Amino acid sequence: MHIISYRNLILWMGELILLTNLFYCLNCMRVFKSEDKCDYCNSENIELLKKDAPVNVMGSKLKGRLLRVNDNTVSLIIITENKDKVIKEYDASKLRKIL
Description:
With 99 residues, the chain is an all-beta fold. The chain has one domain (20-97): SH3 type barrels (Roll). Helix content is 0%, strand content 44%. It is built from no helices and ten strands. The protein has strands at residues 9-12, 15-18, 23-25, 31-32, 46-48, 54-57, 63-69, 73-79, 85-91, 95-97. It has a five-stranded antiparallel beta sheet with strand order 9-8-7-6-10, with no helix packed on it. A three-stranded antiparallel beta sheet has the order 4-3-5, with no helix packed on it. Strand 8 and strand 9 (85-91) form a beta hairpin. The protein is globular and about 40 Å long.
């Protein structure tokens, strides 16, 4: 049986969500879940990806800010050309950190 701290749980629209941490590599800027080393370039130069951090969706020109992290999906706030804020979900492996 696992004991979960109340700081890692959040109630979102009636649904209980477990918050997990994501990290990014300072060399290749890729986002991943492992806290030991980068999954892509094996660098140990990593940082915690914080809420409201700017990220880029690889393979597109979309940029957004991190809203929340579920198991392996990430919700981003994306501002459209009409200045509308849209929340979209992406896989964490498709993101890169923007400086």
